[in-house]
Amino acid sequence: MSSTFQAPKGTYDILPAVSGTVLAVRDALAAPLRRAGYSYIETPVFEDVKLFSRGVGESTDIVTKEMFNLVKRGKEELALRPEMTASVLRATLQANLHRSGNLPVKVWYSGSQYRYERPQKGRYRQFWQVGAEAIGAEDPALDAELIILAVDAYRSLGLKNFRMLLNSLGDRTCRPVYRAALQEFLRGLDLDEDTLRRAEINPLRVLDDKRPEVQAQLTGAPLLADYLCEDCKAYHEQVRELLTAAQISFEDDPKLVRGLDYYTRTTFEFVHDGLGAQSAVGGGGRYDGLSEMIGGPALPSVGWALGVDRTVLALEAEGISLTQPSTNAVFAVPLGEQARRVLFALVTELRREGVSADFAYGAKGLKAAMKDADRSGARFALVAGERDLAENLVQLKDLTTGDQTPVALDALVATLKEKLQ
Ligand code: HAM
Which ligand 1 atom is the nearest neighbour of the CA of 307? Predict the structure, then answer.
């Protein structure tokens, strides 16, 4: 250990070796959204804790066990955001975006989220999501649009081994009927006290229980698919048809519940088969009642969030490395004091002209400086000593071929721009 401090448990540093990939992943996940009319939005990383308890759900693990509550003057009024859907809807309502023009309001975001989970590979206490929300419209084409955009984003990264699980969670008409039937079924099982309590508060969550002894008892559980009302059935069928028409493959998963309480109708999850236990690389769905839950008008909405950390792991699992453009085009190597001043000025000029350039800092000899030039990934090294400068020249060395040519100082910027085109 070379420092007294370590990154907090469940967090990690995104270091230069992978940060290029992380940025490229964030860009790739967002690119399809930008092409589909979604505008960028940012919200604070902390909010009124009640926004999450009401929005995400009082009985969810996220709210009961995983919130980072901030203590302000002895009271826990604020919490770090565990997700952004509730915040984005809060921001939309606060700014009256839903009244200012066309619905749906379509926004996308990219940011860190915080959940106090038991850390393991792919599960962190600070993690990153790129997400999208389409607020204020009930239209199966909107659900399909978002799913297609997510699949296109994964495909654009070259990912292949991911699958989409799809379900409908019904609406306020049919879900309560199903809930009662499921509760009745669960009461008859041999379950521990905690699980029985969960069955009373949020029976659908029990379907998501990963323990084999629980799963074994759930074989004959009533399925929501059999309880969907006509409207929900027709809506779901349209989403499925639109996805099929867009060549999106999906697996119907009648037990897909998701860990947040606001979902209604369409719900989906993207899983990657190379990730072990933390296989969900993204997920989302429709949340038609959330606006009312946080004090707004009826605003049927749909959205998703894709996990950046897990998408990076999925790329690793598939052996995909994203080609990074080298950071610098030019690396300047001065020989002597006068050359330092001249080349430093040239580097500044090149940067101002839009050519990326770096400089051999620290008084280094030619050999060490040329090694730095190679390591920098630059295409050209710019070398000059007193004799070159006396003739108003610099040496331009192509680091791929090794060819070196003298170039007049006042022609350098133009020459480099031409060669780099
Ligand atoms: P979520 O399923 O909780 O949904 O999170 C979405 C994605 O974030 C997950 O599929 C996963 O890739 C990533 N993720 C979640 N927790 C962790 C963690 N502890 N460590 C690493 N990655 C993680 C939501 O957050 C909803 N807000 C999605 C949504 C948007 N629904 C409607 N609109």
Answer: 12
